[in-house]
Structure formats: C-alpha cells, structure tokens
Design brief:
With 238 residues, the chain is α+β, with helices and mostly antiparallel strands. It is built from four helices and nine strands. The model has no long low-confidence stretch (mean pLDDT 81).
C-alpha cells in the first residue's frame, strides 16, 4: 500500500521533470533563433606585417632625417645670366642640397667663382656647375673679339643670342670666302628695345685671330650678314 509521503514525493518529481523539460525546450527555441557565432581566428601573418611596416617606416624616417642633416650649401644664380657674362658676387646665392655631385659648387667657394665667365646661359634659381663657367678669357686660345653692325634681314628674324655659332658672309658678291666658326659673344637690338630686332643688331663675335682683320673690315663696310649654324653653344667650346 502506498503511503501519503510516497505520493507527495512522486508528485514533486513529476513537477520538477515538467519544469526541467520546459526550460530545455525554451533554451532550444532560443538557440534556434540565433545565428551561430563565427569562430575567432588568429591572424599572425597580419600582425607580423604590421610590425614590419612600423619598423620600416621608422627606418625610412631615420634615413631621411640623416640625409637632411648631410645637406650642403651650394651656389645658385639669383637672376638670369647670359653666356659670356662675367660672374659677380651679387649674381649668386646659396641653397642646401643633399645631392653628392662633384660638378656642383659649394657656397664656400663663392669668391673663387666671382670674375669667371659663364659659358652658357643660366636661369634664375639654377644650381651652378663647374662645366658652366670658365676662368679663361674668351679671347684666349687664339681668338679675337670683333664688332658687327647688322641691318635687319641680315640675321635671323628671332635675333641672336650669346653662344650662337655663326658664319659671317659678305653680301656684296665680291667672291670673298665666308668666315666660319665665329661665335656670338653678345648681341643687342639696334632699337635698344629687348626683342625688337626689326631695326638691326649690334653684335660682338669671337673669331679666330687670323681672321680678325677680315671680319673687322667686313663689319665696317656694312656688307656683313650672319648665318647661324648652331644655337646656344657653350662659349669657347665649339
């Protein structure tokens, strides 16, 4: 025969079982409504790459800082300089440069450069190079300077510039041989206005000393014309 205590115990177990089943059912229902979470992955390669980039950036910054510290003051020109111009101190300034070049001129040598001649035209802000200047006079090496007064039409319409290599021709048709290999040292419009060559030109040319007299006589006769054979060559190097 079952006692009242056994009956109560059995009922309590039934209630606990029903409660446990209900709780499990609710948890299963909730779990079915959630998406599964992705497994956490470790990415050691990305971490290593990040470290490499940080270290590389630091090294690059260090190299740039060291390069800046190694810059040296080099000479530049502060205004346009024509070929044949004699360099003056006021033509020069300095600028820090990191380039290691044997043809650039340190600012500490500025006094050595003063008095030398520009072999080519130099633009404002251009670094001065040893190949662009010379301490030799244009009239050395067997050359003479001769002046010519040229009428319009006896030289290129765009004018002449220092460094132009020209042949000097006699337009009187007397059969004289042109003087070749002359080089323009300076040229200005007769009008006195820059770029206005319509009225003629006054030109100084370098010619071989053996032909200096012939060139001077041709210029004085008013029969000279020039033909440009090479433009803008370094003074004295043609």
């Amino acid at each position: 025969m079952t006692s009242p205590t056994d009956i109560r115990t059995s009922r309590r177990r039934d209630r606990d079982a029903r409660a446990t089943g209900s709780t499990r059912a609710q948890e299963e229902k909730k779990s079915r409504g959630r998406l599964p979470s992705a497994p956490r992955e470790r990415r050691p390669l990305l971490a290593a790459l990040a470290v490499i980039l940080i270290v590389g950036g630091a090294l690059l910054a260090g190299l740039l800082a060291a390069r800046i510290d190694q810059r040296e003051e080099m000479l530049i020109v502060v205004k346009p300089i024509e070929a044949g111009h004699v360099i003056a101190l006021e033509d020069l300034a300095s600028m820090p440069v990191a380039a290691n070049s044997s043809i650039l001129i340190p600012a500490s040598r500025a006094n050595e450069i003063v008095g030398q001649t520009a072999k080519v035209a130099l633009d404002k802000g251009e670094l001065v190079q040893t190949t662009q200047i010379t301490d030799s006079s244009p009239t050395q090496d067997g050359r003479s300077v001769v002046g010519l007064s040229l009428e319009a039409g006896r030289f290129p319409a765009a004018g002449l510039s220092a460094g132009d290599v020209v042949s000097i021709v006699n337009v009187s048709a007397d059969g004289s041989t042109p003087i070749s290999g002359a080089q323009v040292l300076d040229a200005v419009p007769t009008s006195g206005k820059d770029g206005n060559w319509t009225s003629g030109a006054t030109v100084s040319v370098l010619v071989p000393s053996a032909q200096g007299s012939s060139a001077a006589a041709l210029g004085a006769s008013g029969n000279a014309a020039v033909v440009v054979t090479a433009a803008g060559q370094p003074i004295g190097d043609h």
